[in-house]
Amino acid sequence: MKQHPILGDDTREKRVYIKVDDKTYPAYEGSMIAAALLENGILVNRYTTRLHEPRGVFCGIGQCTDCMMVVDGVPNIRTCITRVREGMDIRTQNKEE
Any idea of the CA torsion for 44, 12, 63, 23, to the nearest 10 degrees? Predict the structure, then answer.
């Protein structure tokens, strides 16, 4: 168990695996997708439609749209307020492949 001087004990327990753009990453079940992505070094959630500029977490409370991704085939999911569950398929939104 990890301890933080301000946040206290890290009580997250169950590790699960999520897939992000066809790569598998560990995450804590119940944490927000955006937090799991940041823990794994993923900073870009989507690209703007017109100029294809990268976007990541901005407000972190579900008010803006910068953290939106395609989750289990559903576009426009705000990852900062959506909880991780085992086996999620998460994709960068508006990514040119």
Answer: 20
The residues, any chain, with a CB within 8 Å of residue 82's CB and separated by 6 or more, are 32, 33, 71
Task: For 72, list phi and psi in degrees, rounded to 5.
Answer: 50, 40
pLDDT in tens, 38-50: 999 999 999 998 8
Name the percent of the chain lying above pLDDT 70: 88
State how far the Cα of 1 lies from the Cα of 51, in Å rounded to an integer: 43
Pairing of strands 3-4, 68-71: unpaired
Q: Where are the domains of the chain?
A: 13-91
Residue 34 CA to residue 62 CA, distance in Å, equals: 11
At the topology level of CATH, where does 13-91 sit? Ubiquitin-like (UB roll) (3.10.20)
- Contacts of residue 48, defined as CB under 8 A and 6 or more positions apart, other chains included, come to 55, 94
